[in-house]
Amino acid sequence: MKLEIDQDSNLPVVAQVTDGVRDWIARHGAGSRLPSIRRLARDLGVSRNTAIEAYERLVAQGLVRSRPGAGFYVADSAVRVLAREDSGAENLEDVTDEMWRLFQTREDSLKLGCGWLPTDWREGDDLAHAIRQVTRQDRLSLFDYSTPLGTPVLRSLIEERMRLLDIEADANQILLTGGGSHALDLLVRLMLNPGDTVFVESPGYYNLFGLLRLQRVKVIGVPRLSGGPDVERMEALLKTHRPRLLFTNSVFQNPTGTTLAPTVAHRVLQLAEKHDFRIVEDDIYADFQRDPTIRLAALDGLRRVIYLGSFSKSLSCSLRVGFIAAEPGLIKQLVDVKMLTSIASSRFAEQVVTTMLENGSYRKLTERLRLKLSGQMASALELVGAAGWEVFAEPAGGMFLWVRHPAVDSSSRLVESGQCAGISLSPGDVFLPDGGRSPWIRINVAYTRDPRAVRFLGNPSML
């Protein structure tokens, strides 16, 4: 096997060896015996450890098989694996919509329509300190399962945080999850059967729509107004539909950024009582709010309302910690579903969040985030207003603007224009439960000071 290794290359030597062997496999096909570790290291002039790591990478990729006592061989599946990799990216792009492309775009693309904070906003020092502290003081969290409900101390801390929102719940009414999406998934699995009807906000959360359709649930959209769900439209829909659940956001609704008004909150609860459905209150943006406003869970006392929260949006997309608060009987059933589907949530992640809550670093982090987002929101509103964009409603905070331009009747056209400018956008279509055409797009204000965003949003002639 003749491979060229460039010791001066920016590509690590182990990656060069791995890529070289991959190319050799592509030419020689399955079943071929590969050089021994000792021979490969000698022939290429690399260390034995480098040869071992290269082979292990190829084994993990499904290209090589290790036969104890006989060495390494090209796997029977190697040709199929390589063929799938060659065609996979294009085929995947063909079958996914614009929303999922936000996770596939190049790193240098400006993700103006995404639902998370920019990487350079992430403050890693306090998080890294908490990780080191947990690793030193609670090494078992690196290996052991968490308890079925989740770490008791963190549930008690969440209980106190909910009390600041006037939501009364015992720690045993709180179930920790692997983020907000995991919480929604548990509820959908437990509470809904194929053919059931649910009400969702329109526009609303695209990932929720996908979970519901996966369960073969009938999804009915209720228009989202500036003060919450359109209760008059909801009342009209209740004459012909019997929903099991209503999914709603009380604070900084995704994608409109609007907040629930007290009059609407009371009316929604009255309708839920009268027509016997439950409400899932998704409050994952709670920590972006400086002055708390009304929550359905506070008014209801967790009788009909199921309350969700998360630390992932504010702390780290990779550190998945969320929670569900509900009446005890429902929590017991949700624990059973959680144990069956994922056994437990991450004890390590829970301990990191616990540490940051206890030492005050999480509180200070969110205070800084709120201040930055407030400044970004003000400048973004000024930018789009001056350029003639229409804003659905001016948010009191958070990170989303729901906007459209009078010169453009389809968000797909905006997405195409954005791509030409190196910008990834969220088309309005994916936020509608019926997938209908929409001129609206979701803008993440945390990205709007980037020069590409300023040029795109501030210059309508580009559209």
TrEMBL record:
Residues 11-77 form the HTH gntR-type domain. GO terms for molecular function: transaminase activity. Keywords: Aminotransferase, DNA-binding, Pyridoxal phosphate, Transcription, Transcription regulation, Transferase. CDD domains: AAT_like, WHTH_GntR. Pfam families: Aminotran_1_2, GntR. InterPro entries: Aminotransferase_I/II_large (IPR004839), HTH_trans_reg/aminotransferase (IPR051446), PyrdxlP-dep_Trfase (IPR015424), PyrdxlP-dep_Trfase_major (IPR015421), PyrdxlP-dep_Trfase_small (IPR015422), Tscrpt_reg_HTH_GntR (IPR000524), WH-like_DNA-bd_sf (IPR036388), WH_DNA-bd_sf (IPR036390). In the C-terminal section; belongs to the class-I pyridoxal-phosphate-dependent aminotransferase family. This is PLP-dependent aminotransferase family protein. It comes from Chromohalobacter sarecensis.
